[in-house]
Amino acid sequence: MWKLYDNNKRRLQAGEARVMRSIDYTAKLPKGDFTIQLQLRHDSRKILDKLQEAVVHLRKKLATPLSFDVVPSYLSGLRGSDDKFKARILAPNQSSFFFLVPPSLEKLGKGLHGSYFLDGWLYFALGRDQVPDARRNAGAFRLKYVLTEPSRAKSPSKSVKGAHARSASKADLASKTDVALVDGKEKDSKEKEELEDPFLLHQVAFFDKVQDVKKRRELYHVFLSDDKTPIQQLKLHHGYLMSLAKTLETKKPTDPQQLQDLQGNILEAANATIAAIDLKGLLASIGTQGDSLSDEEKLLVEFNRSAMTDALYQKCLQLKSVPSDSASSATTDLLDTVSQDLRKLLDVKGDIRSAEIAAIRWARNKQYGRAFKYTLQLIEEKASAEKYRELADLARKLDWPHVADHFVEKIPILFPGKFELF
């Protein structure tokens, strides 16, 4: 149950988990500070510990209702054009698309900010001759709009001139330093805007909607042929890479040729992402992140770090697919180099990907004991039938047939859906 108290510790309202229509849980509160006490009972102490910090949702009515502009296309909503959706009558089995434009800041007012969301209904009319009250009976759809923090306008930089300057040369040097700092901030702000371009984000999200891998690759090169800045090209490389990796994980092709083509595309996208980032400069920026970097620079450094980490990780996975008997020493050396670069960016103890890369590296170098150790760590975090088969193969190479039989016999017990009858 929950209880509501004011500053004087006076109980104003109380309620329970079961919502009853006969009981009104609403409360009109004046300005001031209030406290909500929530009492929970559960058999597990761990679940109760997780609920010590919980988010409270408070519902309140708006003073004036908000209206959303309706446009006929997605691009019209992004660009904020004045092209409005006109009322139309649809025949049976006929559909029509429309998009809602978020309300402006003037309509929202000062009381609403990023921690609020609007909850309401969208009503449709059956015909022109209906009275307004009958619209509620036509059709209603639940509408939820999450508010985001508005972008704050940056105040123009002002160079402070010393009232008692000792020499003109020092004043000139100080003014040049101010101009350099302002130019750097403008550059970072421009790169941040380019990275958050709505049209670019729409292109990246469109990769997941194209199921055919060949058509997705053609679309990727079409997007790259447009006038894109280096940071936007990196965003496209990374988005294309992650869409291919998601396809390989969720919808792995059964045809060997299609699987080989998909792995080749992933390796190509990973190499393009790695080539677009300066690893040495990125490591230097990470080392000085808490000292001299602005908020825009920290955002760009974090994005470059995430993109480089994903690219190196996917490249290691594709190098693993090369058969060990046909792999040359150059492939093994490349795997060692990529895994070492990846360890510089990963949290070795907290990120499970570091254990997976270590298992791949040691198995390629024929150090099967170390590979067995890290593969066993992977199973403790996220078990799968494939990892159990890898453990069985490593056990056979270590001349442990009893261990290999043990892991093979556990596969149909732990993963009955993966058991092959014939």
Characterise this structure.
By secondary structure, the protein is mainly α. The chain contains 16 helices and seven strands. It has helices at 45-50, 74-79, 105-108, 168-195, 198-206, 213-225, 230-250, 256-275, 279-287, 289-292, 295-320, 329-345, 352-364, 368-381, 385-397, 401-414; strands at 2-5, 11-15, 35-38, 69-71, 99-101, 117-124, 139-146. It has a three-stranded antiparallel sheet with strand order 2-1-3, with no helix packed on it. A hairpin with a 5-residue loop joins strand 1 (2-5) and strand 2 (11-15). Helix 12 packs antiparallel against helix 13 (352-364). It is globular, with a radius of gyration of 29 Å. It starts with a strand and ends in an 8-residue tail after the last helix. The model is unreliable at 153-183 (pLDDT under 50).
Lay out the secondary structure.
Layout: E1 2-5, E2 11-15, E3 35-38, H1 45-50, E4 69-71, H2 74-79, E5 99-101, H3 105-108, E6 117-124, E7 139-146, H4 168-195, H5 198-206, H6 213-225, H7 230-250, H8 256-275, H9 279-287, H10 289-292, H11 295-320, H12 329-345, H13 352-364, H14 368-381, H15 385-397, H16 401-414
Antiparallel strand pairs: 1-2, 1-3, 4-5, 6-7
Helix pairs in contact: 4-11, 5-7, 6-7, 7-8, 7-11, 8-11, 9-11, 11-12, 11-13, 12-13, 13-14, 14-15, 15-16
